[in-house]
Amino acid sequence: MSRFRMYPSHAQQTALSEQCRFARYVWNLALEQWSMWTRDRGPTPGFAEQCRQLTEARAEFAWLRAGSQMVQQQALRDFSQAISNFCAGTHRRPTWRKAGLHEGFRICGSQASRVVKLNRKWAQVLVPKVGWVRFRVSRAVPAAKSYRISQDRTGRWHIAFAVIPPAISAPGTGEIVGVDRGVSVSAALSTGELLTCPGLSERERDRLEHLQRRLARCRRGSARRQRVKAAITKLHARATDRRKDWVEQTSTDLARRFDIIRVEDLRISRLVKRPNIEPDPARPGRYLPNGRRAKAGLNRGILANGWGELVRRLEGKAPGRVEKINPAYTSQTCSSCGYCASENRESQAVFRCVACGQQTHADVNAAINIAAGRAVSARRETPPRVSLKREPQLPTSA
């Protein structure tokens, strides 16, 4: 999608929030109807039946009739598509939409093409029941048949046009690059480049810590607590914007420079999973230490470096040119001689092979192994451990 920042007036912001509220209400009502339906009642109402029920409800309730019928019917159409995707096994089960978290609605049809460019930097779009809303033109506005208007947690409004961007063509040089993702170094390339995802500055981190302490002292439900939470949300949104921008620039650069991009086949959802708790047999009602605080810090580091976002954008920009390699022993195998041992990893950043003595950056060494595909064989088996001990030689007869 091509997303642009919107700048509605105060009255338009109120109208957009009302449309989001109507779309959220219709979605949740359809989800409740689908969740509570039983087999003895017959088939579940489809999109056409729900539209008929919506028409009857709009004729009876004036507050529902005040919203856009196009927005409400589109919410039902989106819900019907979500149910079809869930039954097909391609998507998750539809969930409830919450106020302040899922703020947005979608417009399709002829209304989606009502976009007028004002000048080089500004354009406006016609939104039903709202009017002409301006948005910033940061790139070429695509010709789309639908768009979605959404509001993030910081109160910023965006418009996203539903288009599939063209893929980046391969340079044709035949070069292969390996990408090793880490926490201290966001992405290490087999060429020796170390890329770091920008986050909050030291001053911003100090302010975030100060705001978090203030939040802990605020009374729940107070206006001061809401102001502090809004300030914390803005800092987190700033870090998210920087991470997304870095992911876009890095993925575009890799797709333009290399023909084949090899990454580790990591399951991020399992890596950031909380550690299991085990009861302490000596102390009933208590649990054994499981290092959850250290694991929580590691999880924050993984998510802050955008491991999954980088691979998703690479697959979208360079389809068919992204290969996933089994990550087993890539950080313990020497990229020069191929000797595999845990003693090779001297520290988090230093790799020193105990066999050939090669010393290099640990992440770059792993990236070279990923680029060479040394972690997998034809049967996708991990390489065996190589021993440096020499076999005893039998005495030769004179």
Write up this protein.
It comes from Kribbella sp. HUAS MG21. Residues 171-273 form the Probable transposase IS891/IS1136/IS1341 domain. In the C-terminal section; belongs to the transposase 35 family. Residues 3-37 form the Transposase putative helix-turn-helix domain. Keywords: DNA recombination, DNA-binding, Metal-binding, Transposition, Zinc. A hairpin with a 5-residue loop joins strand 8 (176-181) and strand 9. The protein has two domains: 2-161, no CATH class; 176-279 and 289-325, no CATH class. Mean pLDDT is 88; it is low at 376-398. It is globular and about 80 Å long. The chain has 398 residues and is an alpha+beta fold. It has helices spanning 10-35, 47-60, 62-65, 69-88, 202-217, 223-257, 268-271, 292-304, 307-317, 362-372; strands spanning 2-6, 103-108, 115-117, 122-127, 131-136, 146-151, 157-161, 176-181, 187-189, 194-195, 260-264, 322-325, 350-352, 359-361. The longest helix is centred in the middle third of the chain and has 35 residues, at 223-257. Helix 2 (47-60) packs antiparallel against helix 4 (69-88), helix 5 packs antiparallel against helix 6 (223-257) and helix 6 (223-257) packs across helix 9 (307-317). The chain has a five-stranded mixed β-sheet. A four-stranded antiparallel β-sheet has the order 1-7-6-2.
